[in-house]
Amino acid sequence: MLHKVLEIKKHAGAIYSGVFFEDSLLTASADRYVVAWDPKTGEQLPFVVKNDTSTYVIEKLGNQYLLIGSSNGDFQIIDYIEKKEVKNYQQHQSAIFSIEVNQFQSHIYLGDADGNISVWDSKTFKLLLFLPLNQGKIRVIKVINDGDQLLIGAQDGYIRLFDTTHFNELNNNYIHNGGVTSILPLKNGNVLTGGKDAYLRVLDENLKVLNAIPAHNFAIYDLQLFEQLNTIVSVSRDKSIKLWNVDDLKFIGKITFKEGGHQHSVNKIIPMPDNRFATVSDDKRTIIWSFEDLKP
Whole-prediction pTM value? Predict the structure, then answer.
């Protein structure tokens, strides 16, 4: 099913986010560090960002910039090639939980713990718009329809659809009891969501629920599609990693601590080349997995 390739345990706190960037695996932790690792050896690379508070989310912008959102609301832009900070903004007054890049519109979107969305120009790094949505903690933002629209999932359990020109709210629907924690756009136009209620739900383009699956025991923190293998991966606060068939959401299998997985909440899936991915957890560990046992 999955093969455990490598384990890295060098952070001193829970790991919340990560990206794969120019042959490096970057992880962000409650220990206040963003660190780069060699994904082949697990050795630390010469790139470290130390912050004053925990880092909750990181994202990459093209092949040059690293975007960092911290628990105090700081938004940092780091030139990964030059290894230097470009900008550090304090626009948000509460923790930043989500960052999404819209390459079609040259936008960056941030969502915070107070339900605010900020819109930034990804070329000039100037603030374009600040939207107080008052919907609770915004855990996930996803661009859909070639950048024309934006899905926002928040603590109030609703998913909201916005356009990315005037940022009008086009639609909304109550989806998950306790809050929306993950969103995955699918190739057929549908959307897969995960929530604090531990359910997976399939939505159509009008945000109508087509299917609901009791998938985990606790909140589903991330979803990723591995298209070549027709497989979706979900991770949860219940410490497990689960695999699903993308066509019918049939359960394929799961990884727990007994199979070499995590001891605590699994917070993020980091796609990597060659049918590999990494998972990060509250147990301070990063684990790299391979799909080599599955046939495309």
Answer: 0.96
